[in-house]
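Reopening this ticket.

The earlier resolution said the output was attached, but the attachment link was broken on my side. Pasting everything inline this time so it's all in one place.
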Amino acid sequence: MNGVPMNNAPHLLTEDRPEFERLLDEALRDGTILTALQTPGALTAEQLRTKALLAADTVAAAAGAEYEHYTRLRASLRSAPPPGRHGESTAPGLLTQLRSGNGGAGLFPVLTVLTPILAWAAALVLLLLGYALRAADPDLPLARSVLTAGWVALAAGALAMVVGIVGLILTALRDGATAPGGADPDLTAELADARREWQHALGRRALLPYLHAHLHSEPALPPVVPAPGSPPPPDFSSPGYSSGHYTGPGFTSPGAEGLTDPEGREPRTAAFTGPDFTGPGYTPPAFTGPDEV
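Inline output:
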């Protein structure tokens, strides 16, 4: 069984992870682990627990042979039909014979409850009547007969109560010896042994060595699970995204061109030249006198 390769060990099932966490907590309370946690540079108990939970399949692989045997027996027990499902046993007992055919309580339980009550009620009536008759006439034979019947009824009620108690105890012992759900008791006992073997191997051969080996390792960070409805984180590896560096646009200041540098940051001194004005080349008309008009 112990020769099973580690890489062929079955993965830890979801239903067994609470048991893994319980055994992990027990291993963290081990004396050797508590002493090692006091050494300088060692991880804390919570950090060790986080690392072990994140590597649960790897840790449990050290006890993979026992775990495979345990899960195989458990699957066989779940798939096996319980005995007696399609009929009663070949030698039914008294309780089975007296049980109701439609699944009710049956005759025997009813008798064990009603017989003591009816017998004690009859005994009370007979004893009261008998003592009343004897008080009226001590020599009356009827009084003695009624008193005798009353004491007999009282004894019968007590005997019926004892029989009912014994039947209840036998039924409890029979049900306690039967596996839950009517399963095979031998297979159930074998499954319990396999479960204990896996727990022992997981604690001693898997968890304790792992905790000792990772006492001075780097702490593991649990995966961050985003809250429901929160936006997804930015994808920095997407095409077209280089970095968050921002450069200002190359604006030029309003006004005449050339007042700033090409990036619009440093001002320049504008080079103005005076306007080149010349006279309007106007000549007056050449009038000489009225005789020329």
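Reporter confirms the inline version is readable. Confidence is low (pLDDT under 50) at residues 1-7, 85-95, 100-104. The chain is about 50% helix and 0% strand.
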